[in-house]
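To whoever is on call:

I kicked off a structure prediction for a single chain this morning and the downstream step that reads the tokens threw a length-mismatch warning. I double-checked the sequence; it's 343 residues and nothing unusual in it as far as I can see. Pasting both halves so you can look.
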Amino acid sequence: MKLQQLRYLVAIVDNGLNITAAAEALYTSQPGVSKQVRLLEDELDLKLFVRKGKSLDALTEAGRQVVERSRRILAEAENIKALSSQMAGHMDGELVIATTPTQARYVLPDLLEAYQRDNPGVAIRLQQGTSEQIAEQVQGREVDFAIASGESELFEDLVTLPLFSWERILLVPREHELAALEQPTLADIVRHPIISYTYSFNDDSSLGQVFTRAGVEPNVVFTAQDPDIIKTYVRKGMGIGILACMAHDPDVDHDLVAIPMKGVFPNPTTWIGFRRDRFLRDYMMEFLERVVPDASRDSIERAVAGAEAAGTVIPFPRPEPLSRHPTLGAGPGNDSCCAGFTL
């Protein structure tokens, strides 16, 4: 049995049982991939796939278990390489972060600029997406860290450390009738079309549950991942915006009014998560120490150990508002909308 064979097997599964697509992803030939999988089946004396003619139709039960264990073996092989590099004193590498457009655009720039300046040998790759996409990337070991908000079963298998809390705001043009209200109610809001984030009104969304519990139906007419796009369509008059407070820059968005919704909408928590089986190189630990309030290498290692033992981790205090975060709290929208509340 060879690591290459396990890598080919996992690639086939990750590419929808399409051997040609797996070969392209691996930069090798389709016949070579097929041959190595056949050799692996012969050595194990197991049928890993249900076949229909020359096509793969599904994994067998044995195949499912072999793939599951293959992923762990390949992950440990990568961890050994990372450990070897660290023990050799190599400080270079790549830090891959999956996050939402709001965090990428409004929260992380100053932190990542300072981190890269202090770690010139570390390349940073930032990938943006929805919670579902972020979860898929971190579970597929495509990224080192996920930075996202809210609670979701998508992230139950990760070690998650809280970063900060933040407030949702209502964003309207200055001439809008809601701009004259100090605190719009849900009844006021549902009278207008709503523009918000993609998936903000899913069944498991804390925002959607507010309307459900109140027995009112929001008129959501437009959704997008990018807060700047949301603001564009608010300016077009298509609806009122519901988005994160840090996405409002008073200097840039002077034509829009940000109305804090404290007490109306719950305050989400943004956290950073990573796989329990991920070997954290020194430069990854340094990043965690910068972004997680009051974190140290020891507390992070205890968090990982606690996750492995109990399946959940709450080793850090409840997060403060974003404006009080020691390294992330200086963004343009943080003082105006994220400063007066706690969870």
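Update from on-call: the warning came from a stale cache, not from the record. Cleared it. Sanity check on the structure: The chain has 13 helices and twelve strands.
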